[in-house]
Amino acid sequence: MAVPDFDVDPDAVLQLRQATVRRGSKLLLDSVDWTVEEDERWAVLGPNGAGKTTMLQLAAATMHPTSGQVAIFGERLGAVDVFELRPRIGLSSAALAQRIPGGELVVDVVVSAGYAVIGRWREAYGRLDVGRARALLTRFGVGELADRTYGTLSEGERKRVQIARALMTDPELLLLDEPAAGMDLGGREDLLRRLGMFAVDAEAPAMILVTHHVEEIPPGMTHALLLRAGRVVSQGLIGDVLTSENLSEAFGLTLTVEREAARFFARAV
Ligand SMILES: Nc1ncnc2c1ncn2[C@@H]1O[C@H](COP(=O)(O)OP(=O)(O)OP(=O)(O)O)[C@@H](O)[C@H]1O
């Protein structure tokens, strides 16, 4: 069902209006309203099955809502060629990562994003592209792995390569699905520091980072959205949203949240 009074904001990066996703009798997302502006960096949190990945799929233009509307870069999904939108969106997710061939050189995994293919195959890439790919790998702490094959990397190293790949096309919207999952403590802290520096860079794109854990939110994130069973529990400025009360409601248990510097920590009470 169309939402008749939906005014697309041409300046917004992403708009969801009453966005609902239904599969059979299950509501994956229920009437979600959400706007992401150019200079915002969002953390999306919620327990398993809350609908976080579904939200990212809408944001990546890889799924349409069953009802309600989605606009990306001021263009309504359904009225725009998604193949024109997708190169403007950088996505790092486990589903995408599974499609990366283990035998590919790391630098090629990154550089091939600019050609919308996974793996280098036989394309000849320009020196500038290769230089950009190497610089991105260095920025995320894996520059020295550029000439290894992807299959030989640890899980944490692969995550960093995936982020570099997502940034290769210089996207206007960066979507990160659990970037710190599977990392050891040192690796996680190093990645969060790098993502935090990236998030405060004025040149960085709008960001949406999905996670289960408040500890995995890098510094520099400006906003947060909490989901539970497909519905928004709270959204807005990160300090207003990540309260003990809101987190407890989203995760369905009594939690206490502490903020230290620009990081958040939660535990059950
Ligand atoms: N095609 C489908 N048919 C029925 N249910 C589905 C379908 N796809 C997803 N779901 C269900 O929708 C819910 C939301 O899924 P989603 O992957 O968006 O959650 P999530 O918050 O990303 O979860 P997680 O943190 O576990 O990755 C889950 O309960 C999932 O089992």
TrEMBL record:
Keyword annotations from UniProtKB, A to Z: ATP-binding, Nucleotide-binding
Top-level taxon of origin: Bacteria
InterPro entries on file: AAA+_ATPase (IPR003593), ABC_transporter-like_ATP-bd (IPR003439), P-loop_NTPase (IPR027417)
Ranges of residues in domain ABC transporter: 14-254
Example of a GO MF term: ATP binding
UniProt name for this protein: ABC transporter ATP-binding protein
